[in-house]
Amino acid sequence: MDIEKVNSMDFGEFVDVFGNVVEKCPLIAAAVWSQRPFLDLEDLQKHFFAFIDALPQSGQEGILRCHPDLAGRDLQQGTLTAESQREHRGLTSLGADELLRLAELNAQYRARFGFPFILAARLSDRAAVPRELARRLLCPPAQELRTALGEVKKISGLRLADLLCANPAKL
Amino acid sequence: MDIEKVNSMDFGEFVDVFGNVVEKCPLIAAAVWSQRPFLDLEDLQKHFFAFIDALPQSGQEGILRCHPDLAGRDLQQGTLTAESQREHRGLTSLGADELLRLAELNAQYRARFGFPFILAARLSDRAAVPRELARRLLCPPAQELRTALGEVKKISGLRLADLLCANPAKL
User: Fold this and answer.
1) Angle A41-54/A141-163 helices, nearest 10 degrees?
2) Is B56 close to A54, i.e. CB distance below 8 A?
3) The one catalytic residue among A21, A38, A67, A136
4) Which residues does the UniProt record annotate as the domain Oxo-4-hydroxy-4-carboxy-5-ureidoimidazoline decarboxylase (chains A, B) (predicted)?
5) Which residues form the domain of B38?
């Protein structure tokens, strides 16, 4: 899909296509439509990120809370969004012990920060996930909020690049 | 459900219960959770409305764009959210002529304002809908944005009152 096609979309089409660029937050895509026309993928991405950055802290935390636990209940129950399911591919072969360990760490993380642990899993290998979770669990809350929003942006950038069939390495 | 029960919810439960208070915008409920504890239903509602009011204009337009057309495609195809389906009850018996007229007016409205026509249908009778749509189609865009957000708040207030089993007339 090229950028002319994107710029020709009415808001209904745009939200249908880009509504889950930020997980379960079609409001953000629907807001970004106000900024059309877009120059290119990078420009489109810039508007998604600018909207996230301009939200009050509660809204940024709200974005994080719309994400599933990594390798958590939604993966087990098959209730992940299509995008998230693809991103979980590397985590489907975890053993019961690893899943239990992750569930414990996810619960500690949620209790400490008030949002779920988010990691751009496609950019990480399976073994690194519990290690990274344990590391970030010890970070100060304000720093961890910034880190988590950075992961949301990495995930959104990859999803946008997928939709426009671009090479994400170029971003 | 009483307010103590609401205040005891973790963010996952809270988003499960209140995620569609604003149509297809779980981000807003997820953000409002940051403001707990809530004094009562009125206080909870106040935080939903404050979040909406604090958004940039593109975000407010984004909320509106997450709503379905009134008596439109989602009603015909059975793809309304559960809450919206209940609110559409009074509109299910519209005749083909009335549906066609509404579809034309909805399309004109979307083209003029860049968001769909929104009306708290439970507070309106069936005959009033096309009349009100035709009237609002002529309003200046800035005024119509305010009117539409006012309707979103009426709908959200009714949904919150339903969830807390309160009498919406008291709000």
Assistant:
1) 150
2) yes
3) A67
4) 7-161
5) 3-170
Can you give the CATH number for the domain in which A133 is found? 1.10.3330.10
Structure confidence by residue, pLDDT tens digits, A143-171: 999 999 999 999 999 999 999 987 655 44
Mean pLDDT (chain B) is 93
Is B115 an 8 Å CB contact of chain A?
yes
Closest CA to B45 of B134, B163, B136: B163
Determine the average pLDDT of the residues in B103-128: 93
A31 vs B: CB within 8 A: yes
Percent of all residues in chain A with a pLDDT value above 90, rounded to a whole number? 80
Q: How far is CA A137 from CA A72, A113, B150, in A?
A: 17, 9, 41
Q: Closest approach of chain B CAs to the CA of A141, in angstroms?
A: 14
Domain count, chain B: 1
Task: Give ipTM to 2 decimals.
Answer: 0.94
A99 against A54, higher pLDDT: A54
> What pLDDT was estimated at residue A168?
55
Contact B27 A58 (CB under 8 A): no
B165 versus A155: the higher-pLDDT residue is: A155
Interface contact A25-B26, CB threshold 8 A: yes
Q: What is the interface size between A and B, counted as CB pairs within 8 Å?
A: 102
- Identity of the amino acid at A101: R
Catalytic status, residue B88: no
- CB within 8 A of A36, min separation 6: which ones? A6, A7
